[in-house]
Fold this sequence. Notes:
heterodimer, A: mainly beta, Rieske Iron-sulfur Protein, 5-stranded antiparallel β-sheet, 4-stranded antiparallel β-sheet, 2 helices, B: mainly alpha, 4 domains, two-stranded parallel sheet, 16 helices, 2 strands, about 0% strand, globular
Amino acid sequence: MDLNTTSNNNANGAVAGKTVNVNDLTSFPPNGSWLVTYPSSGDINVDSQSPDTFQKFGLIRLPSELGGSNKDASAFVAYSKVCVHLWCSPNYDPQKSSNPTYETYQCPCHGSIYQLPKPDSDGNLIDAGKAIEGPASLQAPPTNAIPMLTLSADANGDLWIEIPQWDVDHNGVIGYGRNYDSYQDYILPVAQGKQKAPGEP
Amino acid sequence: MSKPQEKGNVVSRLYQWIKDGLDRTVYMGVQYTYPKRFVSPLGYLGVLTGITFLVLGITGGFLMFYYQPTLAGCGSLTCAFASIERINNTVPFGWLLRNIHYTASNAMVLLAVLHMYYQYFSGRFKIKNEVLWVTGVILGIITGVEAFSGYDLLFNQRAGLAIEIGSSLANASPLVGGTLRLATFGAGFTDFVLRLYAVHVFILPMIMIILVFVHFPRYLVFDLPVISTVVGGLFLVAAIFPVAVGIGYSPSNPQLTIPEWYLTGIYALLRTEFDKFVMGGLMPALLFLMAIVVPFVDTSKKLNWKDRPFFTALGITTIAQILITTGWGFYINPNTNLPTLSRLYVDPALYFSSMLGVTVLSFAFTYAFLRYLKAKERVRRAVAPMGPLLTKKWVFIVFLMLVGAQLALNFFAWTAALTNLNAMTLFDVGAILVTFGVIMHLYRYSQSLPF
């Protein structure tokens, strides 16, 4: 398995340098978010100094009502920090997550809002990272959803980032977009361990 | 002039020798005029724009001593931002240079726009001046890009967001977008900040200097009192409104930031949520295209704005539209309880109807005003010529007072510099330059008096 560890920065940009464990609900509680660098240089100091948003992702532990307390990788989503509208950096606002489809991952420049995964009528989570309001939501698919990383957890519960497939049907193209159903078709099954990422034995 | 002067002392002979030598150079192809009396600076706003360019070149050159166009390796801040902070807080006279540079950049954009509109309304761009006009528009665009690239170099939060938006707008342009983005943005911010630096300090200034040779007419007004006053005024503004460095850019939690005043128009256009390339690229391009084709459309032999009602009204319309769009870009609903989107949203229906309304109003106003002027002209009475404002005695008194003030200001500036009172130093130096301009003008004025 050729996987990359996550290198975690806390929301202030200072380096936390911790491995995320899906079983640990205290150091990274539901409805929290950390800044992640991918690909990581391997040196936490170098990562924290790099302002390159094309290598930054908002790692979000979902609110409990969306499965944020689950002890697997499906409790997390990792959204690109590059808005597909004009490449500003959206932020996760935990206070606005009481209504989980509104105002959670929002761009400060022109106000595009990306939703967290949303339960459908059967209770399955779908369409993570789709822009629901603002200029990004008015762009034609696949340029209306934010690229995401594919996450998985190992036997110890440590969170890993799978090697991304940078095309619109998998992890998306950063700064361009993603087909938002790739979450339920590819990213979520891998996180739940139901499907293997490409290249994995 | 070609024969060397035999008479006079050493100084005047040396002066004559240098002048004869310069006669063969390109500088003497331009005829400089030092007006004998005060003439309206509106006629030579281009020269003043050039003077601010010179101020920017000098201050910018010194800023290059300490600015670092790199990102990683300077602790928790990027090197670019850390070096700006160092220039601002530690480097001797760095605060002064940075504030003069910033204010001069704003002044240059403003003067270039005013220069364009004066040439437009006075009709001077017509009749064999088409090449000058078109190169002027291109110089104006480059001035804008130069200002934009300058404020990106700070790498504070506003710069970071502006870089992202600028490069994604380039990327959104059809056909050339991807190549353009790769050429400017490279593999990311580290490439970009270095390229931006090269563009800002060398490539664009070089292009501007080359274009200026095509843009300058052969007769230039070089009015020292006004130039000194303008440069001094620029220092005064820089001293009274110093600009903060801001906070260093970090992608972790950027907040709502309004761009510089010459870009808020584009910001308002983007907030209408229509297609980004159309609003952020084509709409501004339309304005520049209009400016470029004007001398080929307005081909009448009439120069005065009063005789060209349609083009006068068109000019007024563009001014009104630019002012409204720019103002709109600054406005963000102050109610922070509202979602960011509804605070930012510019309703296109409201925006475009106001653009249409302002067009109708501008045309109606211009035509009505011109009719009023014509009616007034018929009943115009002769105005008695003015006598001299100051007598010989008062010219002497004011002159001595100004020289005294000049000496006092020099002392104040010196003490302020010694005690590290940056804003005070800058203010005093500005006041010295303004006083110098007034003294020069007074001297010129006294020459016209019957002594």
